[in-house]
Specification:
Elements lengths: L5 E11 L2 E6 L2 E6 L15 E6 L9 E8 L2 E4 L4 H11 L7 E10 L2 E9 L2 E10 L1 E3 L2 E4 L5 H15 L3 E8 L6 E4 L5 H12 L3 E10 L2 E7 L29 H14 L4 H4 L3 H11 L4 H14 L3 H6 L2 H8 L5 H18 L7 H5 L6 H12 L8 H11 L8 H11 L8 H14 L19 H5 L15 E11 L4 E5 L10 E2 L2 E3 L4 H10 L4 E13 L3 E12 L10 E4 L1 H7 L7 H7 L4
Parallel strand pairs: 3-5, 9-12, 11-13, 12-14, 16-21
Antiparallel strand pairs: 1-2, 1-4, 2-3, 4-5, 5-6, 7-8, 8-9, 10-11, 14-15, 16-19, 17-18, 17-22, 20-21
Helix pairs in contact: 2-3, 4-15, 6-7, 6-12, 12-15, 13-15
Bound molecules: iron/sulfur cluster (SF4).
Length: 598
Amino acid sequence: MHYTNIRRGTFIDRPNRFIAHINIKGSAETVHVKNTGRCAELLVPGAVVYVQESDKPDRKTKWDLIAVKKGSRMVNMDSQIPNHLVKEWLEEGNLFKDITRIRPEYTYGSSRFDLYVEADGKKIFIEVKGVTLEEDGVVRFPDAPSDRAVKHVEELKLAVKEGYEAYVFFVVQMKDVRYFTPNMDTHPAFGEALMDAARAGVHILSYDCDVRKDDIHIADEVPVVFDQFDQRADNAACADEAVKRSDSDLADVVEPVIAWYREHKRDLPWRREADAYRVWVSEIMLQQTRVEAVKPYYERFLRELPTVKKLAEAQEDMLLKLWEGLGYYNRVRNMQKAAQQIMADYNGEFPNTYEEIRLLKGIGNYTAGAISAFAYGIPKPAVDGNVLRVISRITGSREDIGKQSVRKKIEELLEPVIPRDAAGDFNQGLIELGALVCVPNGEPKCGECPAAGFCAAREQGAAAEIPVKSKGKARRIEDRTVFLFRDGRKLAIRKRPSKGLLAGLYEFPGVSGHLSLSEAAAYSKKIGLMPVRIKALGEAKHIFSHIEWHMVGYEILVDELERTNEKGFLFISPEEIEKEYPIPSAYESYTRYAGIRE
Ligand code: SF4
């Protein structure tokens, strides 16, 4: 695709999403920005940009912003171009052999997909997304939440059910990137929808582009990598960072690890009767917290919901109450969706192949491997943090275990050596070894280790330096003030929104920022609650995966809770809260003042 009338300029500012001010030959011009995304990392003052001069005299602004230089990289910012590029590229004979029809903007049900294609005897929908967000060679979409994008992806999934072939095609509007991944920071729902769609058979493609100031063409395929919910990684993208095989042959450690495990394994409730449902419940819980902390949760969960059917039919509040304190509540919601899938597709019988298990909602490579191996003896790897550490040390690998490519490589190293007659014991042996001997904090107990004779890290005296794990992105800090409004008998709580962080759980009311005692009193009055006594409850911190809450709390005794003009408050006794209303552990420091979970 070639542009004419291109001029060079420098970015000044962007008063709103649709226009920018650009310095062109010493004059500040108003320029139309077709890409209404945030593009905050691209449009920085002084950035070199390229604009197209329109030949239509009746336009309000005669310039369109086409491309921007980000360091040495040229990024095309024309949001209207990706659809044209894909159409042009298909017409050149790419992707499909024999195209008989190609139509842009095609209405299907309540959706409008970017392209409809008939080719090779198939009917095909393609939804095209332009990608401009790049960091360290990783490109992500969307750069701001996009419910529309989620809707499109979900509708493609339905189209597949009805016999169409469907694609989400990410056009990366720059060259030489490492891989594409959905932006879980900005819009996790999109990432999850995309993953779901991939499972349902929607093809997810990503291609980069050769970009010049006046030209853009689709170039090479870019690996699509899902995040930890997916755990798929592309070898080619990160081949240079992949784990190197050490001289140690992993096959040598198999027998010693199995023998050690059979002798030293802990007696844990989920190991006594290791059917698929029990393994699944315990594994999801173990991803949240320590073994000792999981035991009472596991037993209570199994008592209340002993079967897939019961889980599929459970009320949400009950489910969340059973999970209260474990965190990552989406995991238990996903478990329920998976249970419903099992009811619908497998008549309530847990599927018994790795591939079918892997397709269940919320189940990634690790959990699918664990259920397959522990419950059915299928020789598939189950690589968790313990296994990453143990194998990195045995092989002496200094590759970053935070990378999906490294996890994938370790899975590939392990899979061929897992014995068919002891897959569960070998996998659990590696995990147990990591938990009890080759420990994460403090010195590994090499003297007790069955793999000591084969371990490169031990031989090199490098166990303290391995595994290597790079620091993740810094978390966002959010200051909050939490209120325990109470009268003689009851406390005010409210339900959180049905989407987002801690969705659907109950919380103590709160506001952003840290209020002083007098500001807290003023806020109480503002919402109609006359304070009789205020007590500062001190500071507390709760760490989520991407966010940290830094809280201050106040207990405010009021004459009558019902007087508040604030909507959505519920007035509930501590006993009832304890029984019926899931309060997340983020509030743990304040629940004892409320008389719950003391
Ligand atoms: S020998 Fe030491 S470092 Fe190596 S796997 Fe065993 S405990 Fe870990």
